[in-house]
Amino acid sequence: MTSIWDGTKVRLRGIEPEDWQAFMRFDQFSADMRSVDLIHPPRSAAGYRRWATDRATQPASDDEFQLAIESLSEQIVVGALSTTNIDQRAGRFSYGIGIGRDYQRRGFASDAIVVLLRYMFGERRFHKCGVGIYAFNEASINLHEKLGFQVEGRLRDHEYFAGRHHDVVIMGVTIAEFTERYPLPDV
């Protein structure tokens, strides 16, 4: 039996308290932290344990959540994703995704995004997904283009870090564009 949360390479699952070590390893690379979000102050091992425990015991929501990305072959956490900017009225949402340095360029991100979009479009009735990507993150822009996202605009000098302002590229995909490439499963 397969789960809607299983792709071909990854499984999306809740964050467990024992996942804290994986997230601590991911945060050791400032460039990776910056590509996903921003650089946070150092956290102790106890802080990571508390963070993972808090995520594991957080009440579930159908639309706004944070999940671990687990490799199906190795059964280890390779990254995480979270939904954001939920707009039920307009039928749109966004997400953020990060894959640990040792697991990048292996197809985990694209597989996780497809699993997420199938759920949000096919089960939660959303119409559009939009993402904002730092303009210097060419790998993420290319990934999203391959998944069918369209460039919708650019926010100039929108975010500040590393001593200067950076552009953000806005990309989006509708359910029709997504299902043209990735049909929703039959019931």
Can you tell me about this structure?
The protein is built from 6 helices and 7 strands; from the N terminus they run βαααβββαβαββα. It has one domain: Aminopeptidase (3-Layer(aba) Sandwich), CATH 3.40.630. It has 187 residues and is an alpha+beta fold. The mean pLDDT is 94. Strand 4, helix 4 and strand 5 form a beta-alpha-beta unit. The chain has a 7-stranded mixed β-sheet with strand order 1-2-3-4-5-7-6, sandwiched between helices.
Shape: globular
Beta-strand content bin: 25-35%
Radius of gyration: 16 Å
Instruction: Quickly name the level 1 CATH class.
Output: Alpha Beta
List the domain count as a whole number: 1
**Helices and strands: which structural class?**
alpha+beta
Alpha-carbon distance between the two ends: 14 Å
- Tell me about the biggest sheet? 7 strands, mixed
* Helical residues, percent: 25-40%
Q: CATH homologous superfamily?
A: Gcn5-related N-acetyltransferase (GNAT)
Helix/strand order, N-terminal first: EHHHEEEHEHEEH
Estimate the mean pLDDT confidence: 94
Oligomer: single chain
InterPro entries: Acyl_CoA_acyltransferase, GNAT_dom, Ribosomal_N-acetyltransferase
Domain N-acetyltransferase: 10-176
GO molecular function, one term: protein N-terminal-serine acetyltransferase activity
Keywords: Transferase
